[in-house]
Amino acid sequence: MPPKRVAIVTSSTRRPRLNPTITQYVHDVLASDPTIPTKHTHDTTIDTDPRHITLEIIDLSAQSLPLYDESVIPASLPASDPTPHYSKAHTRAWSALVRQYDAFIFVTPQYNWSIPASLKNALDYLYYEWVGKPAGIVSYGSRGGRKAADHLRGVLEGLRMRVVGTAPGLPVKFTGLPVGTLSEVEERVEVDERDLEGWREAGVEGMMRNLGMELVCELDK
Ligand SMILES: Cc1cc2nc3c(=O)[nH]c(=O)nc-3n(C[C@H](O)[C@H](O)[C@H](O)COP(=O)(O)O)c2cc1C
């Protein structure tokens, strides 16, 4: 049985941005936890453990989705195979990508007490590709992005996703909020060591592992 594929979604699309660094942090915490049955994507041995998962990163900035311009209503398409019915090539590509994954962890900043428009836009493009799949939320912001996480939970529940209870929020207190000029090559934004230490002390990494195990349990159902 092939491992179940879990996508960790980088949701902001501006440059420079903190999101890729936080996404990688979430990935590394989960991948290094021996209790989460992660199979590394480069591991080609035949898989016999039905609980195995892979962790892969999807960056919304690489999808180049315009502001919603579909002429069809996603929820009105055939549930079993919506992909060919979209009117736009970018929607068909996004649909085909999302259909490959069994579960999602959305890593979102807080923008004005909610999620970035890029994430809402990417979610709105599809419907049956999300329905019934397990989802986890990791938020960040000056106080952990709780309002963004709560908004996102409502949106994902509207898409009939099975949102797990644990939703770590990462307060960003010392890391400078990234600002700068747009460059061709994205520069990595480093998290201030004091923020990392604060997250560890607050048990955020343990919450991430709980989130990971909740997803594994949901995938096992
Ligand atoms: C448009 C905008 C709105 C923001 N609103 C909030 C907010 O409501 N609460 C908060 O804690 N931080 C807010 N911030 C700060 C962001 O959480 C912070 O800049 C973070 O780095 C954004 O993630 P990103 O770098 O991946 O885009 C806002 C930032 C932007 C760009």
TrEMBL record:
GO cellular component, one term: cytosol
Annotated ranges, domain NADPH-dependent FMN reductase-like: 5-166
Matches recorded under InterPro entries: Flavoprotein-like_sf (IPR029039), FMN_Rdtase-like_dom (IPR005025), NAD(P)H-dep_reductase (IPR050712)
Superkingdom of the organism of origin: Eukaryota
Pfam families cross-referenced by the UniProt entry: FMN_red
Any one GO molecular-function label of the UniProt entry: FMN binding
Protein name in UniProt: NADPH-dependent FMN reductase-like domain-containing protein
Organism: Penicillium arizonense
